[in-house]
Give the backbone structure.
Amino acid sequence: MRRRGVSARQASDRIVSARQQQLEGGKADIFVTYRDGTPVNASLFGVFDNKPYYHVSGASDRGYHCCGPAHLIWTAIKMYKERGSTILNLGAALEDQTGLYRFKRDFGAKVVSQPIGTKRISRPGSALHRIRSALRP
């Protein structure tokens, strides 16, 4: 980000600790593609209920040149399939984002409409959710 002129600040100790707990607890995975020992792209996948979600990714020009992002996603697909996942959510891409849309579509993805907006939970709804969670085995 700094190379592109975007200021980035160091995450707080609490954020770093939370991220580490997610990684160690199997709730997130980081994939990195290396070329001649140098990292050229990386992606973060969140994992919820054995369903991986493609969260954020980045690549250098060298990473794109060697097809690092595609290789990384195929590696993730293979690993998550071995873990028993049947779905990998590649995230949103609008049709006018032609490159990103085509990249995700070419993995055999299907378009799934997602609601947009704010979800509000009432006090009774929140209480029912807590009760339901407490009753789950």
Residues 68-82 form the longest helix (15 residues). The radius of gyration is 18 Å.
